[in-house]
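Sorry to interrupt, but I need a hand with the structure work. I would like you to pick a protein and set down its sequence and fold. Please put the record directly below this note.
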Amino acid sequence: MSYRSDHPVLAPYGWDSHWAAAFAPFAERGLVPGRVLRVDRGRCDLLTPEGTVHADTEYVVPRDPLKVICTGDWAAVDPAGRDPRYVQAYLPRRTAFVRSISSKRSEGQILAANVDQAVIAVSLAAELDLGRIERFLALAWESGAQPLVVLTKADLVPDPVTLSYLVADVETAAPGVQVLPVSAHDGAGTDVLRAVVAGGTCVLLGQSGAGKSTLANALLGAEAMAVQAVRDIDGKGRHTTTTRNLFALPGGGVLIDTPGLRGVGLYDAQSGVGQVFAEIQELARDCRFQDCAHTVEPGCAVLAALDDGTLHQRRLDSYRKLLRENQRLAARTDARLREEMRRVWKQRGAQGRAALEAKRGRFS
């Protein structure tokens, strides 16, 4: 059975000619396409042509955490009548939002798949942390998605001049990215946001207390996500979303809501860092030395821009910090891969020796 790109059930969830073509070999095997709505404890919910189904993920949970099935994936599922039903495979991803799971480890964690836009929620109830915003943006650019910064709780900044200054501050940290102040409380900016995210898949990211669940409810037009009060003392809240959930938006498009992220570690995000700090990358092209470190080198265009005020010190410090972090992770990843290769070759050598001894035993 074939599944056309305009399938009435699948199309609102992002099904198109690309996915239909990629799924064709699985359709020949009698499998059913579905988009993963939620993954939890070895099972997942998927939206299929027959509606929402539950399936076991045993076959799509390899040791590599970046290859496990996740919310947003398009999958091949056993047809109706199988009990239990299994996800047999998932289709190659267009994009993947990945972070480092720990500052001391080199493994990555995939948060969402096949995302077109990364909506980064930043609360105006607390002091802006531009460095954290730049970190989110680096991961978003690296994923292949288009980032968008949403300044939530804009009603807490009633003075339009003050609000415009805050927007301008974020824009300096987010070149090439739209910055949109929104208030789910009075609806300001939500219509613009709905129009921006309509037609594709967006993932909603941010710290706990950033107002993501409230924002999700405003976009969905329903109390789909639980909302808890935020502490007035520091603007922090509890995790009201505990799993990553995918919803179809009433105005078109798809939303993936995620738990609040306390840690946002970079994972192989050198290209993303470069896009966040595009003006520094552009300046570096005019440095006298190709391998300029932008510290004390003569003829450094970056340091010259710092001296004349074209470039702010905070931006350069943040750029250096994220580059160092990404380089440390890359070094740890290389070391881990080398160790794994040594372990594999050692194991294969032991197996080969055992096989040789067994062969000798048969002919002795």
Q: What stands out?
A: The first helix runs from residue 17 to 28.
